[in-house]
């Protein structure tokens, strides 16, 4: 599979260091709304929709993790960016880890949130893909949002619940299902020791999808890894606890100078 030209949004000073933000399964560039403005004070911010999501093309499956990494390389090439910081959550974090291991010359510093190097059982992802292909992404939207945020947060923010379910439901079925299959077949455990980019691994303390031991296992196997566990946050921890996570991202990407 050749790379596709993904939909992207660029903000921040043209001469600033570049940071790429990569979304989770079933989301779009909007999942980074809580971080974008603050990051743009320090960086040239490139948000993009993973293939099959949002405004990006929906090539026929199957996809694999290298296809998603290839899309990032093509995006960087199109922007004439040789090396960038990379921040990814869940599927976006998986993309970032593969990119940093496979193309180390393209990744400066790395932040991975609420993700894993291997998410088993594979059958669960194949089953979800089958459900979405048969019934559409809306069929899983309610259950997915219940994992994205803690119950108290959803109760206090019904508009966020509704908007999040709508974003998932609008995700093309083939794109969502094919990215489920990326996760089913992905195994990055042998990649981890090869990642030289200084990496901050952020876990949501209440994340049922990728609980803190997943991020601890990542941080422990990297050449230069550090773990941050954020209380009162589930899978979309960046959206639920931006006041803790946004400064941590900026501090890591600036080498502790901010």
TrEMBL record:
Recorded GO MF terms: 3-oxoadipate enol-lactonase activity
Protein name in UniProt: 3-oxoadipate enol-lactonase
First-level EC class: hydrolase
Domain of life of the source: Bacteria
Alphabetically ordered keywords of this record: Hydrolase
Pfam entry (one): Abhydrolase_1
Annotated EC: 3.1.1.24
PANTHER family: AB HYDROLASE SUPERFAMILY PROTEIN YCLE, MONOACYLGLYCEROL LIPASE
NCBIfam families linked to this entry: protocat_pcaD (TIGR02427)
Organism: Nocardioides ganghwensis
GO biological process: beta-ketoadipate pathway
Any single Gene Ontology cellular-component annotation: membrane
Domain AB hydrolase-1 span(s) in chain numbering: 17-240
């Amino acid at each position: 599979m050749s790379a596709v030209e993904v939909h992207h949004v660029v903000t921040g000073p043209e001469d600033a260091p570049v940071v790429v933000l990569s979304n989770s399964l079933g989301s779009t560039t909007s999942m980074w709304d809580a971080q974008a403005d603050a990051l743009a004070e320090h960086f040239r911010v490139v948000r993009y929709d993973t293939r099959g999501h949002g405004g990006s093309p929906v090539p026929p499956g199957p996809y694999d993790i290298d296809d998603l990494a290839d899309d990032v390389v093509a995006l960087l090439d199109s922007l004439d960016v040789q090396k960038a910081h990379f921040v990814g959550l869940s599927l976006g974090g998986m993309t970032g880890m593969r990119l940093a291991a496979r193309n180390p010359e393209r990744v400066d510093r790395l932040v991975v949130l609420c993700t894993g190097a291997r998410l088993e059982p594979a059958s669960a992802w194949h089953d979800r893909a089958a459900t979405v292909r048969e019934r559409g992404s809306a069929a899983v939207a309610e259950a997915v949002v219940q994992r994205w945020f803690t119950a108290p947060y959803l109760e206090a923010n019904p508009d966020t619940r509704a908007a999040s379910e709508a974003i998932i439901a609008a995700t093309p079925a083939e794109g969502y299902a094919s990215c489920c299959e990326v996760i089913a077949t992905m195994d990055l455990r042998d990649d981890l020791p090869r990642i030289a980019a200084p990496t901050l691994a952020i876990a949501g303390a209440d994340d049922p999808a990728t609980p803190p031991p997943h991020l601890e296992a990542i941080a422990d196997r990297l050449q230069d890894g550090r773990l941050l566990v954020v209380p009162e946050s589930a899978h979309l921890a960046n959206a639920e606890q931006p006041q803790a996570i946004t400064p941590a991202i900026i501090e890591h990407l600036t080498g502790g100078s901010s």
